[in-house]
Amino acid sequence: MSSNWSNRTIWTGDNLPIMRGMNSDSVDLIYLDPPFNSNANYAAPIGSEAAGAEFKDTWTLQDVDIAWLDLIEAKHEKLHQVIQVAMSNSDKSYLIYMAVRLLEMHRLLKPTGSIYLHCDPTMSHYLKLLLDAIFSRANCRNEIVWCYTGPGAPNQKQFSRKHDIIHWYSNGEKWTFNNHLIKVPHKKPIGQGGTSAKWETDAEDPYEKYQNGKIPESWWTKFSPVGRIKSERVGYPTQKPLALLDRIIKTSSNEGDVVFDPFCGCATTLVAADRLNRSWVGIDISPVAVRLVEQRIKADQGLFQDIKSRTDIPGRNDLGVILKYNDARNKKSLYGEQGGNCNGCGKHFEPRNLEIDHIIARAQGGTDHLDNLQLLCGYCNRVKGDRGQEYLIAKLAA
After folding, report:
1. 263-291 b/e with 16+ CB inside 10 Å = b?
2. Are the beta carbons of 314 and 367 closer than 8 angstroms?
3. With contact defined as beta carbons under 8 Å apart, do 119 and 164 qualify?
4. What are the DSSP calls for 188-247, one per residue?
5. Non-local CB neighbours of 390 within 8 Å, separated by 6+ positions
6. Which of 24, 55, 158, 193, by CA, is between 20 and 30 Å from 292?
7. Positive or negative torsion for Cα 360, 363, 369, 374
8. What does the pLDDT read at residue 53?
9. Element (DSSP H or E) covering residue 380
């Protein structure tokens, strides 16, 4: 399916409603470096290029989270089971936040697409379970460990924590893997200044079969943290090195493919994609991201690219013919589907006493498609107003 946005577009805002307005099957590769539930708040230092960029990574379970969980339970039982095993309310709130967004990313990916979720050991085990439930455990391609070095641990009673986790899942049984673009040299054999086992010597040239290198292991050590790369550093608190994104994009996309980063931050993914002649689209909650992507791509390419900055929610055009919102045929279908019951309070009503309403509000990216419509009694519809169904559930529970 073709996309309903232009290449080199970056949105400012909450990524959930924006993703809801994007066409299905329109993205080839997703990389995301979301909050990690680190129980910390981050801000770029004053005077840096990223000054003004900040985000909170603290989570508290609230009524709206419980309401989201009810909606997940209704349509995604396995996902609901994963969230229920969270060890704390903070963990549960974080997983609900991530689950509803990963569901949208799954919809956006083409059948041959891939998603790379970057996290640290704090929540990596929970996030893997979310990905198993949404993308299928069979589609887990690799758990990549990015290892790096740095100052020793402040706690002298444990090992230094110096690695991140990147979960790579395909969206189906076929996926892009450009192994020829990412091969690395073999270690030299014993006798040639190396320490690995001897190479086979049955070929006329014993080194011929090794001259093209090998596919890297799932542990990556060659990429230094960006804090040590002065030419890249912009001051963004969780900035990742361009070389890391370069490998991911080369591996799982081709020139002209669409690369999407829903937490694009200081725009490293977008800069790397632009260098590699990929189309790209990004979203970030901070308006600083727009400025950074423009500055970095201009500096990188030596000219100002045609970058589009948006704050609206795109309108999907991949849903085919949609009946008018209040069409009587919609009401008839929904009445039979809901058994004549209000989808809020659950009470039974005659058709004339039920009103058509959205599950996901239009202002949050909801469409007029039948899948996003429901019947509510007058009272529930007034309580809900122009908000999402999760608000109504929370208010009724209270």
Report:
1. bbbbbbbbbbbbebebbbbbbbbbebbbb
2. no
3. yes
4. PBTTTT--BPPPP--SSSTTGGGTT-B---SEE-S---GGG-TTT----TT---HHHHHH
5. 64, 67, 68, 70, 71
6. 24
7. positive
8. 52
9. helix 378-384
Interval 24-51: pLDDT, tens? 999 999 999 998 765 566 444 444 455 5
- Return the half-sphere exposure (C-beta side, CA atoms, 13 A cut-off) of residue 11: 22
Single-letter amino acid, residue 111? P
Q: Are 312 and 291 in contact (CB under 8 A)?
A: no
- Ramachandran sector of residue 196 (left: φ over 0; alpha: ψ -120 to 50; beta: rest): beta
- Element spanning 79, H or E: helix 77-84
Each residue's pLDDT tens digit, 122-143: 899 999 999 999 999 999 999 9
Secondary structure (3-state) at 169: strand
Q: Do 272 and 246 touch, CB atoms closer than 8 A? A: yes
Short-list 130, 125, 110, CA closest to 25? 110
- Among 299, 303, 258, CA closest to 276: 258
Name residue 299's amino acid: A
Statement: the pTM of the whole predicted model exceeds 0.70? yes
Residues 6+ apart with CB under 8 A from 62: 93
| Pair of tokens at residue 121 | 């050991």
For the residues of 121-140, what is the DSSP string, one character each?
TTTHHHHHHHHHHHH-GGGE
**Structure tokens belonging to residue 236:** 């963004």
Q: How far is CA 398 from each of CA 65, 88, 175, 329, 392, rounded to the nearest angstrom?
A: 13, 22, 46, 34, 10
- Residue 387: both structure tokens together: 């908000």
Q: How far apart are the C-alpha atoms of 217 and 209, rounded to whole Å? A: 18
**What tokens were used for 195?**
């320490």
Give the C-alpha separation, 61 to 87, whole Å. Answer: 12
**Closest by alpha carbon to 281, among 253, 296, 305, 261?**
261
Q: What's the length of the chain?
A: 398
- C-alpha separations of 204 from 92, 190, 201, 209 in Å: 61, 19, 8, 10
The SS3 of residue 46 is coil
